[in-house]
């Protein structure tokens, strides 16, 4: 589908660091419909090329005459959030149509929603959709304090929502084991937020016996290298393209391919959607995504947007 031209209709602040944007079609045409958990890919001009940044849609419970997103200003980011925070009402830009990689499970008997920080955006859309459909759910939302909690009042108005304030110490946040509980037939768990919350939530659920097919997650940042890891340059051989590229420290395989004039398929560039996944033919990978399962990796799946090499060379089917 061709990109959609959008206009910023309204902007307001949810917290000192989070802006809410209401987007409408620049030509006034109806917008493609979407379901709770969906995101749009915003075309952000950074340097000499345009990059895509994914933002979850918050308003899954209403008509598709506008899209609502919330953007956290991240000082350590590559510039996408700063560009979004510089937008003003009336500005226009392109987006990719909504795509859902974090959908509610069909046929579920109960839904447990867990969010941290800006991860509330798809989770709140899910809560509204479930409430409108009369489906049972519970929502738990964690933040440092009330002033940094986006949609604080809207979440508080939900009859089955609990807000947790940890003061910056996750140990004082959501009591995960107690909140998650033992698995029940037809129950599904959804978690979105920082990597630490996601990892802790999934680990707690698995320890309690929850099956993997009942666990759903979406990350709002790329998986970082482990502390102390030294990123060395390595070589990538692209078998289908008959190209050899050198990947320097601090640069992804995907960006090296784009700089070389190739046109790889990708979306989030954060390792959480799997759009860019390709087949590893040879070499020892350093997987840094969160979207591939152990079985996927065992079959050779590899995400060049964030993952790197432990060996001197990787051979990819690209």
Automatic annotation (TrEMBL):
Instruction: Tell me which domain of life the UniProt entry assigns to the organism this sequence originates from.
Output: Bacteria
Keywords in UniProt for this one?
2Fe-2S, Flavoprotein, FMN, Iron, Iron-sulfur, Metal-binding, Monooxygenase, Oxidoreductase
Residues annotated as domain 2Fe-2S ferredoxin-type: 234-318
InterPro entries attached here?
2Fe-2S_ferredoxin-like_sf (IPR036010), 2Fe-2S_ferredoxin-type (IPR001041), 2Fe2S_fd_BS (IPR006058), Beta-grasp_dom_sf (IPR012675), DmmA-like_N (IPR054582), FAD-bd_FR_type (IPR017927), FNR_nucleotide-bd (IPR039261), MRET (IPR050415)
- Give the molecular function GO annotations: 2 iron, 2 sulfur cluster binding; metal ion binding; monooxygenase activity
EC no. given is: 1.14.13.239
Boundaries of every FAD-binding FR-type domain copy: 1-105
Database matches in Gene3D superfamilies: 3.10.20.30, Nucleotide-binding domain of ferredoxin-NADP reductase (FNR) module, Translation factors
What SUPFAM superfamilies does this protein map onto?
A: 2Fe-2S ferredoxin-like, Ferredoxin reductase-like, C-terminal NADP-linked domain, Riboflavin synthase domain-like
So which cofactors does this thing need? FMN
Q: Which residues form the signal peptide?
A: none
Give, as one word, the top-level EC class: oxidoreductase
Protein name (Swiss-Prot/TrEMBL): Carnitine monooxygenase reductase subunit
Give the source species: Paraburkholderia caffeinitolerans
- Please spell out the taxonomic lineage of the organism that makes this protein: Bacteria, Pseudomonadati, Pseudomonadota, Betaproteobacteria, Burkholderiales
């Amino acid at each position: 589908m061709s990109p959609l031209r959008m206009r910023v209709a309204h902007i307001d602040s949810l917290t000192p660091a989070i802006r809410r944007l209401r987007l409408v079609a620049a030509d006034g045409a109806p917008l493609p419909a979407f379901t709770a958990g969906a995101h749009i890919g915003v075309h952000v001009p950074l340097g000499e090329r345009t990059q895509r940044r994914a933002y979850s849609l918050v308003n899954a419970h209403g008509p598709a005459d506008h899209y609502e997103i919330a953007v956290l200003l991240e000082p350590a980011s590559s510039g996408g959030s700063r560009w979004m925070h510089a937008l003003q009402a009336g500005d226009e830009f392109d987006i990719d149509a909504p795509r859902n990689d974090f959908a509610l499970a069909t046929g579920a008997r109960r839904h447990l929603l867990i969010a941290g920080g800006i991860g509330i955006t798809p989770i709140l859309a899910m809560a509204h959709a479930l409430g409108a459909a009369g489906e049972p759910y519970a929502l738990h939302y964690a933040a440092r304090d009330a002033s940094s909690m986006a949609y604080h009042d809207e979440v508080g108005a939900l009859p089955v929502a609990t807000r947790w304030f940890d003061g910056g110490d996750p140990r004082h946040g959501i009591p995960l084991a107690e909140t998650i509980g033992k698995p029940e037939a037809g129950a599904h768990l959804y978690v979105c937020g920082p990597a630490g919350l996601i990892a802790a939530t999934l680990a707690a659920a698995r320890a309690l016996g929850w099956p993997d097919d009942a666990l759903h997650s979406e990350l709002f940042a790329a998986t970082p290298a482990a502390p102390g890891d030294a990123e060395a340059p390595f070589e990538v051989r692209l078998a289908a393209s008959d190209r050899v590229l050198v990947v320097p420290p601090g640069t992804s395989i995907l960006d090296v391919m784009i700089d070389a004039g190739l046109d790889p398929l990708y979306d989030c560039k954060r390792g959480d959607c799997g759009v860019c996944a390709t087949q590893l033919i040879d070499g020892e990978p350093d997987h840094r995504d969160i979207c591939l399962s152990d079985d996927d990796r065992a079959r050779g799946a590899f995400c060049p947007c964030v993952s790197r090499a432990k060996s001197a060379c990787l051979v990819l089917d690209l």
